[in-house]
Every structure is written in structure tokens, then in C-alpha cells.
Specification:
two-stranded antiparallel sheet
């Protein structure tokens, strides 16, 4: 979603019809040269994409708070987020992983303790070993990382998976709703 290259002579942004297609220079009042970037080959903004689709309303803002009188009709982010192609768009990370034939499963943001089968706890075990046993030689860094990852054996993986499941159960039961109460429930199990 970018403006066509110079050869195709694309139309400028709807809200800046006098924009320059190519990079130009301009002399300012104090005699200095100022470079003005052209729009050809640059990414289109949210406003221009909405305008092209006939969804732009005069007075729209990039985002509005949920308690605003014109939310969500005049919130550009919310209007664009409701377009089918934006809803179904796959992120770059997911696309890369799927290109190798793997499945991507994202966990909720802000809750690493329930990610996967305890993967965050596995990383914690690996980091703990790495920090205790690193020899601070740059040429050995890859060897040190591999050695720390190999310390996560089957028994450790089972333990960390069990710990992650206890957090998942605590969240499912809505154990008090606060992080402190959830931590207490998980410590008791």
C-alpha cells in the first residue's frame, strides 16, 4: 500500500494535492536549501487508504477514546480495523513461520506465565544457567547459548508445563481477579 513509482505518475494524497511527485529542493527565506521529499514510492497513510475506499469522513481523527461522542465512526483506526482485508491480514512473523510449514499460536499479551506449555519458564531456566555459567568471551557466545538451552531437559519441561497449567486453571476460575490472588492460588497448588 504505497504510492506508485515515478514512472506511473500516481495521484498525490487527497489532502495535499500540491505535493511534489519527485524529491525537490527549495531555497528558504534565509538562503538555505531545503529538501522536500516526493511522495512517489512512499507508504500511503491511514487517511488516504480510507479516502480511496470511500470511508473517509471530514473531521476524522487517527484514534478516539471509547467515551468520545463520535467513537467509533470517526476513529480512523477503528474504521480501518473493520475492513475485511485488514481483519484477515496475517502478520509478518506468522507468515514467516507458516512458510516453513509450522503452526503459530499466540498467547495473550501481558501474561507470559500461560504461554504455550510453559515455554516462558523454560526460557527462565535457560537464562538462569546462562547467567551463572557464562565465560564472557564473545567467540563462545553461541556455544554458551546452546549449552544453556540443552539444560532444559524433559523433566524440567514437564515441571514448567505443570506450572503454566496451574496459572491457566487459576485464570479460568477467575481466582479473585487480581494478580496477587492468582499468585497465591498458584503457590498453593
Amino acid at each position: 500500500m504505497s504510492f506508485a513509482k515515478k514512472e506511473d505518475n500516481p495521484l498525490p494524497q487527497f489532502n495535499n494535492l500540491l505535493a511534489s511527485l519527485e524529491d525537490t529542493t527549495k531555497t528558504t527565506l534565509n538562503g538555505k536549501l531545503k529538501e522536500i521529499k516526493g511522495y512517489a514510492g512512499n507508504a500511503k497513510g491511514v487517511a488516504h487508504i480510507l479516502w480511496e475506499r470511500g470511508l473517509w469522513i471530514e473531521g476524522m481523527r487517527l484514534s478516539l477514546k471509547k467515551d468520545h461522542i463520535h467513537y467509533p465512526d470517526r476513529s480512523a483506526k477503528d474504521v480501518l480495523a473493520n475492513c475485511d482485508d485488514f481483519k484477515e491480514e496475517v502478520g509478518a512473523m506468522e507468515d514467516l513461520v507458516q512458510s516453513y510449514g509450522h503452526i503459530v499460536m499466540f498467547s495473550p499479551k501481558g501474561h507470559p506465565e500461560i504461554a504455550g506449555a510453559g515455554i516462558e519458564f523454560d526460557w527462565g531456566v535457560s537464562k538462569k544457567f546462562f547467567r551463572r555459567n557464562i565465560n564472557h568471551i564473545a567467540s563462545n557466545c553461541e556455544h554458551d547459548v546452546r549449552a544453556s538451552l540443552e539444560k532444559v531437559d524433559l523433566q524440567i519441561a514437564k515441571n514448567t508445563s505443570r506450572k503454566a497449567r496451574s496459572y491457566m486453571r487459576a485464570y479460568e476460575k477467575d481466582s479473585g481477579g487480581s494478580q496477587v490472588l492468582i499468585e497465591k492460588v498458584c503457590e498453593a497448588t
